[in-house]
Amino acid sequence: MMAFYYQCRQCGTEIGTISTSEAKQRDLGFEVLSRREQEEMMQVDQAGHVHVDILCESCHEATALNPELHEQNRWVH
Ligand SMILES: [Zn+2]
């Protein structure tokens, strides 16, 4: 059975796995993304499973607090 594997694209943490039947019933947030964005963040492996790169909660918070997190030199203390 096809499943969606969610992984954080920032830290690589496995966030969770849901089956297709669950996926249909859940709000995955995909409707806010364009078709192209969806294809970029979703990768289908040889077994037909979908791997989705998203941000985990802690990385999401870090990014929200520090939009320029990747530019650490610009941090002001
Ligand atoms: Zn993360």
Explain what you see.
The chain has 77 residues and is of the alpha+beta class. It has one domain (3-74). Helix content is 29%, strand content 26%. It is built from 3 helices and 4 strands. The protein has helices spanning 20-25, 35-41, 57-65, and strands spanning 3-8, 14-19, 42-44, 50-54. The chain has a 4-stranded mixed β-sheet. A hairpin with a 5-residue loop joins strand 3 and strand 4. The termini are far apart. The mean pLDDT is 79. It comes from Salicibibacter halophilus.
Give the tags.
26% strand; 77 residues; Fin; binds zinc ion; alpha+beta; DUF2757 family protein; 4-stranded mixed sheet
Short account of what is shown:
This is DUF2757 family protein. Helices cover 29% and strands 26% of the residues.
Task: Describe the SSE topology.
Elements: E1 3-8, E2 14-19, H1 20-25, H2 35-41, E3 42-44, E4 50-54, H3 57-65
Parallel strand pairs: 1-4
Antiparallel strand pairs: 1-2, 3-4
The protein binds zinc ion.
The major beta sheet can be summarized as: 4 strands, mixed
Total of helices: 3
Number of strands: 4
Shape: globular
Count of folded domains: 1
- Strand order in space, largest sheet: 2-1-4-3
Helix content: 25-40%
Q: What is the residue-mean pLDDT, rounded to a whole number?
A: 79
Distance between the termini: 50 Å
Low-confidence stretches: none
Ligand types:
zinc ion
Computed CA radius of gyration, to the nearest angstrom: 15 Å
Proportion of beta-strand residues: 25-35%
The computed structural class is alpha+beta
- Work out the oligomeric state of the chains in this entry: single chain
H/E element order: EEHHEEH
Organism: Salicibibacter halophilus
Protein name: DUF2757 family protein
Pfam families: Fin (PF10955)
InterPro entries: Fin
